[in-house]
Amino acid sequence: MALQSTAMSPVVETRFYCLLTVLYLCLVDLLSAQIIYSISEEANKGAAVGNIAKDFNLNTEDLQSRDFQIVSSSNKKFFKVNMKTGVLIVNDRIDREELCGVNENCVLNLEAIVKHPVNLYRLEVNVLDINDNSPLFNDERLFLNITEDAPVGDRYFLPNAVDMDVGSNSVKNYSLASNEHFSLDMQNDREVISAELVLQKSLDRERESQINIILYAVDGGKPPKSGTLQITVNVQDINDNKPLFSKSLYKARVDEHARIGSSVITVSATDPDEGSNGEIRYSFIGHNAQHAGMFSINAESGAITVNGQLDHEEHSAVELRIQATDKGGSPKSTYCKVLVEITDVNDNAPVILVTPLSESVREDSERGTAVALVTVSDQDRGKNGVVECSIAGSSDFQLNPSYKNHYSLEVNGPLDRERTSLYNITIKATDEGVPPLSSTTMLTIHISDI
Questions:
Q1: Rounded to an integer, what distance in angstroms lies between the CA atom of residue 423 and that of residue 10?
Q2: Which end of the chain has fewer CB atoms at under 10 Å, N or C?
Q3: Which residue ranges of the chain lie beneath pLDDT 50?
């Protein structure tokens, strides 16, 4: 059979290209550029964040009629829109430390939706830190036993202060109250500032058996906030040698699912003294509250074991400070660090959040009409946190990825209420862990008659 080619008439061709232009403009509208705002934490309720109507080129007079709304993945509704002015305002208390902990970047992802026609807009709100927390030490007092023959220049680890604020508002400086025996040496290791006590003048127990010093931790806020630690130095009689660790820094790796009692690493120190002066006990020192209970150490052997639940998502690495103290009448101590890497296990299944855009879908809805927003998340990291999303139950709908782990559920073909008046769509999210974990949820879609 011979095939004949047919050409469109000029009128049909013009309409065809007009239709393509309209579809292109709709697609541009649907995937509008993302706007980024910033707001300080603890901002007053009603504080303006940004003019969302102006930034997305929306007519404020149409916001009400087009059912403008803000959708967030958070359970709390931190923001709302003034329908008269189009300004995004604070609706609830925002605590950056509660939302993001010690992470420096704190972002709330929002989506704005208008109907008639349906348009989706995406925006981010950066929550800026304010200096609303003071540095705190885990304990109010620190006791140090130092022998009177300790050489000038000896160093003693001091516990770090913890400040929940980040950036310039975190701990930036340590200082000592004036005294004649000790000075302070600060170190900046991976953006964590720590301090060591340095002996500047020889001790004499017969003249002064106890020395009290105040350590100040100061953050970089304006005005700055500070915390204090009372240091009591007990000057001890002579014990000739102090223990010496085989390493100044130990490194270990442990699975986040390791059982309580699982071995992590064993530290070892030696002391050339004889008898009780050469016997050593091991202990943690300056153990921050956030790490307390995660590990334990055998005082006699130096073996460190798992003592509590580990979570890579909460702490990917933990630095422990170990003290080795001999049992002499005037005990001497030395210190080392243990860096424990907590390896990730695929222990979190993806979470699916579905936000329907309307109670029902008209049977004359065009292909590409959005009916629901789908957001997936996974607390695991690396491949364990990479999620693929799919649907089952009908070919009349499809998932269209829009931004990161955000999708829109859209009409994929002609709908006929007389043929099918109700769809049960199963949405499945699967991560790339080994073995993979998955979650499913069902969305019921009613088709309305025309």
A1: 41
A2: N
A3: 1-8, 10-32
